[in-house]
Amino acid sequence: MPPESQEQTSIHGLRGLINRTAHKTALLSSLVAALFVAPAAPVHASEMSDINKLMRSGQYAEALTKTDAILAKHPRDAQLRFTKGLILAEQNRSAEAIAVFTKLTEDFPDLPEPYNNLAVLYASEGQYDKARASLDMAMRTNPTYATALENLGDVYAKLASQAYDKALQIDPANNVPQPKLTLLRSLNGNATGGTVPRLASAAPGQAAQAQRDAKAKADAAAAEQQERTRALAAEKASQQAAADKAAAEKTAIAKASADKAASEKAAADKAAADKAAAEKAAADRAAAEKAAADKAATEKAAADKARAEKAAADKAAADQKQKELLAQKEKDKAERLEREKADKAARAEKEKEKEKAAQAEKLAAAEKAAQAKAAADKAKADKAKADAASDQDKNAVLAALNSWARDWSEKDVRGYLGHYASDFETPKGASRKEWAEERRARIEDKGHITVKVSNAQISIKGNIATVRYRQIYNSNRLTVDSRKTLVFVKQGNRWLIKQERSGG
Q1: How far, in Å, CA of 289 to CA of 298, rounded?
Q2: What is the number of other CB atoms lying within 10 angstroms of the CB of residue 167?
Q3: Most buried residue, 61, 150, 313, 384, by CB count within 10 Å?
């Protein structure tokens, strides 16, 4: 049977063991007064009797309610507190029962029964080291306490079985005896010499023999545990090495996780700092904008006031000036009438002279218009002649372009090279001969060549023509669609290529 199943059997069997020993142990209603540091008010016997009846009938909730009600009046009563611990244990509320018995050991350290019951509860939870420590305390309060001594033997046996768990897995037939720890149901203290009622009624010799048997059982269990521990030492050392390795790996993983967490925290802190800085900058910017707005408003108010004052002053000055103007106007009117009268005679004379001058100007304008018309007619004729010559040159340039493309497509190297002027600007500063040989080799090396030109735009200035066009070059090795520019120069009656460049 696996150790876990054994422990469960032990725990589930504990209640049966408690029930089987209940009728052998009398439940006392009070403590001997000498056991208390500060005596508590005695509980009425009828109240304890009622609680015991409820417990015997399995009504633990009602028993606990009644116990708590009496404890509210007598909080220092050890017997009632001990009874409450028993009720909680019966209700499987082990943690609360352990708390009650632990407090009893603190308030009444000379009582062995709370230590014993703590050991039983610890053992039911598999905490055998705590159970052993509690029983050791019980034995210190009364070294002749037979029940605690017998329970201590069972605890040692369980500790030995735990040390032998590995052996149990290898040999399932090896059954370790289950502990049969006894939960005490009465609180007698050390008044009876530490023996339970069933031992107190036996002969003194039998009691001594029972103590010797229990001690011998505990000594044998301890020796068995020591022997099994030595037998498993090597295996435990191996297991410890594996555990150390696992711990090291766990530590490394924990460190990596911590480093990652620290990095994430640093990033979060930086983001928070950046956010705070941005918020501060925004706040500073808003404050600056508000200060600027306030300053602008103040300056505007001052400017408005200055403008209003200036407008008032300007209006006063304008009114004064208007008065002066009216006076001056009257004066000027009188003087004007005098001048008009004098000027009227002068104008009449002048009009006669003006008519003569106008007649002369009219004759001169007619002669000038005739001259201008003659010049315009001549310019128009010259432009028509120039446009005709320009169109003729553009057609000649376009014909030269198409002839050049045709000779190239037909691989007529001689005709192709004949389209280039003697002062053609060769690429990369090569000589005319080197360039011509290079072009011949590249043309003759192709299986076939097709060169098409389209969208030609021609501009002519004197003997220089610039042609920008689209060129589609196709051979057995390459196809290129690009924009090119050729600069032609007129030499004699032919337009020859002087410059050649990509783009346009």
Answers
A1: 14
A2: 15
A3: 150
